[in-house]
Amino acid sequence: MATTAEPGIEVGGTDGRLLPELVSHLRQHRTALREEWATRITAAHLLSAMTPHEISTETTSVYDNYVEVLETGSVEALQQYARDLSERIIPRGVETHEVVEIVLLLRDVLARSLFEKYHDDFSLLNEVLDAYEPAANRIANTVAVSFVDERERVIRQQQEAIRELSTPVLQVRERLLILPIIGVLDRQRTKQLTEQLLSGIRTHRAKVVVIDVTGVPAIDESVANHLVQTVDASRLMGASVIITGLSSEIAQTLVTIGVDLNKMNTIGDLQGGIEEAERFLGFHVTRSDGS
Amino acid sequence: MSVHAAGHSSGIAELDPLIRRVVGGRLRDQSALDDVVQETLARTMAARIRLDDGALAPYAIVTARNLVSGLWRREERSQRHLHRLVDRWEPPGPDDDVVLREQAEAVAVALAELPPRERLGLVAHELEGRETASLAEEWGSTPGAVAAQLKRARAKLRVEYLLALGRIDPPTPLCRPVLMALSGGERRRQRELEAGQHLLECDFCSDMGPTLLQSREKGAEDDVQVPVECDADVVAARQRAREVAAEVGFSGTDLTLISTAVSEIARNIVQFARRGEVVLTRVEDDGRSGVRVVARDAGPGIADLDRAEQDGFSTYGGMGLGLPGCRRLMDEFEVTSKVDKGTTVVMTKWRQQPN
Amino acid sequence: MLVSILRQGDFLIASIHTALDDTEMERFRQDVVTRIGQFRSRGVIIDVAALDVIDSFGSRCLADLAHMARFRGAQTVIVGIQPDVAFAIVQLGMDLDVHTTLDLEEGLALLERLTAGSRTGHSAIGVLGDDR
User: Fold this and answer.
1) What DSSP character marks residue C62?
2) Per CATH, the architecture of A18-163 is what?
């Protein structure tokens, strides 16, 4: 009969006989009820990011899972399904409130059909609804919580990815790192960039680093200083630095703070910088092979 | 955020002759005199951000007086206890219990002195962990106003606690407001009340005032002191600095920057003054935490501070990178120095960069 | 053992194994220079990977060592400067004008090139960053 242990749902209330009857009713009218649910979803302008076909597929699965929970009393399968579903629909831009409303819509659609079926026998209807409603609310809750959990996980993941992407240290080939900097450099970001580059040099055993600043509009003097220090620190770790894409504004700032541009390896564009770096690495390979 | 040395430190340095006169009248021993003057300057410097400029000199004077009387008390006691040899550990005395009870009673009395709303607010916030936002809702106020109110309540509580503990009534009607203004670090109020003048005239407040200001130094008892007089102490100082900074939550690069800066100033002490100390303190301000390093010595001092802070100026046999280098490694940096008297460096690094 | 100085053919490999104070650092510098003369070494590797702080004194000591070695006919390569330490050195404003590589292996390879170059009369030009 109905499972009473957590996380199960007690369905059946005072009379365990109700449950099979309820489940078989929902199975019997599966197509009609599911279609009505889908119609109400569209009418409420929910899931606008998904195609009608996708909505149809997902609602069928949710419906079957829903009935299964009512039948078995176990929400585990539903939890797993809700997590998978969330993973699929979160990238499509589906919002938490939509998910909650959709599940509540299903609860109402099913409640209404139970009402129609039992409206002649008022006391039986009450018993059925008493059994159905707590279970339906529990289901809604499970789905919503799974969705929110999944959404938070995705957001965390994205934030990490963005943090890494904002100062990506790329290995193009052995011993060669590229650091394309895009956007405004502030003190905090420059510091982070330096730390990543220096530890990247050690991890990748880099001998040459190409720092491309084509995507940097302008820098202030403190950031310019920091950039020069990054170049010097890289050299102390045994890596040479080539700077590419230096705009005339940034070059001017560097000169203003007293940097001798002749002492920095600057090359017009990233492509040229990489070629120069490869020549340099190639030079080493032949020499050490030869000796 | 960084405080430039030239303007501010000269204000402190000008106090030197004054303090020297005050202490000189009370102490004969030259080295003890130097110690007290240095310590007074350091404490005044630490308390300065919470003091009105007019209160600076009076504060220094009462601090110096307190230090001297503290010195006397210690000397008396050490003579009294000389026969007990060097065991500095003291077993818990039978009166410790009484002291604890007296402190608890003092807190109760002090709390009773607060207006009911402030008292309830403070208890709810400090003991029950209620947030200012929820208090604001209850009082129909804003979180900012509640925070300010709680801050005033705390300042008042400190004053009342000390009064209750000493079982004393302040001698003049001006005492309480002055102490309140000092306790809350309210500089404008200090000026209005001419707090500096009062500190000089009123023996009672000159005893209490500095205690109130110092009690606000968060975690002052957690200071890590490293005596510095030889090469090995330089290594010890930078290693302790790394540990303290790690406890504060600094990571990787910052730990190395801090311990490098400490290494530099500790070496300055050894090479330049022979003996001194480095004090490491965890500091909190406005939700950020950081580490403050104070390095002091009673050495020959630096004649031309402005030049010493320029790259390439040689303070001793080295390349003169010490001071400006440290300034770059830390967020705040300040030197006070007086020829033949000594040098104090105060530098701070904050965990969240003030952008 | 705070430091070790090993001879490997024409080269010396000197390693610092723990934090050194100034006196120990100076003694280390002196020992290395003495050994260079003793063994007529053509190159020296200084392994500083174990140092968590290289301040102005440490930097200066390493630079002096390299200069003194040069007077005795040996090239010096500093290896293993940690990322944080490298950054602190430049923040401090030290211009550590010596050859540096990531690790011992790279250091030995560079020494081979530097000494081979001097033997054939070529200077070490072509090594990027050397002209700084």
Assistant:
1) H
2) Orthogonal Bundle (1.10)
